[in-house]
Design a protein that fits this description.
four-stranded antiparallel β-sheet; Chitinase A, domain 3; about 260 residues; globular; alpha+beta
Length: about 260
């Protein structure tokens, strides 16, 4: 099958059109080398991978065209999903802009490092995480986990954190000192393989699974820099949101009890 895919790709060939290499054509729509490599960077060097990606993109195009022909992109359901995606992207841009306007300084890093590692270290936790933006998604995910569905598959299918979703939700080993307080509180009481959620975080609601626990090793400041920076940024963003809640307190009406 892979050899046949490669043969078909070679038959299609590549032709430069408007500065792009065309690897396949579906009607008037091209599949370009840039699009293929963006989908899977290994396609740049591996012709077999390239052929597989071309066929996957062809299938995706055909499925999208069929869905559009049924008018699915003009339904209320689509509009609702589009709003969720738009809101998530706008919020992501807002967080990026806020972080750029409030860069983490060396002094902040050193203070955070001393606070985190200037005393006996807590345990480290190996975690999987699923981030979603609605309670309905949390309820569905927890129900599916209880029914026996793989956490990593659900993370890949549902998590809005695209980086960890590509790894089945894996976050690797995380120091207790750099975990957000709500997340640490939830996982510190778990046994291996147990799941907790929903956990309210700045980027949404989390469902987490504990995969392991171990005694922590003190890292150097350089080794801890990335996690410390993220923790400082999350705290700054949380403080910013708290100020917004205070400023707009007279406009906030909660009509339902907390989850």
């Amino acid at each position: 099958m892979r050899k046949a895919a490669l043969t078909l790709l070679l038959l299609i060939g590549s032709s430069p059109v408007a500065g792009a290499e065309i690897l396949a054509q579906i009607g008037h729509d091209p599949v370009t080398l840039d699009e293929v490599v963006a989908t899977n960077p290994a396609a740049q060097e591996d012709p077999v991978v390239r052929a597989d990606v071309v066929h996957a993109l062809i299938d995706r195009h055909l499925a999208l065209a069929e869905a559009q022909s049924q008018g699915l992109d003009k339904t209320p359901e689509f509009d609702s999903l589009l709003k969720v995606d738009r809101d998530r992207l706008v919020l992501g841009l807002a967080i990026e802009k806020f972080n750029a306007a409030h860069p983490v300084t060396q002094a902040q890093l050193e203070a955070a490092y001393d606070k985190a590692y200037g005393k006996p270290l807590s345990d480290e936790y190996r975690l999987r995480e699923i981030i979603v933006s609605s309670f309905a998604d949390v309820d569905r995910i927890i129900a599916e986990i209880k029914a026996g569905k793989s956490f990593s598959i659900l993370a890949a299918e549902s998590s809005e954190d695209l980086h960890s979703a590509a790894l089945g939700g894996e976050l690797g080993w995380q120091s207790a000192a750099t975990l957000p307080a709500p997340l640490l509180k939830a996982v510190s009481g778990l046994n291996s393989e147990e799941v907790a959620g929903p956990i309210s975080l700045p980027q949404g609601f989390a469902v987490v699974q504990l995969l392991g626990r171990r005694a922590a090793r003190k890292p150097s400041l350089e080794e801890a820099k990335s996690q410390l920076t993220e923790a400082i940024q999350q705290e700054a963003w949380s403080n910013h949101i708290a100020k917004l809640r205070s400023v707009h307190a007279n406009q906030i009406v909660i009509t339902q009890p907390s989850y």
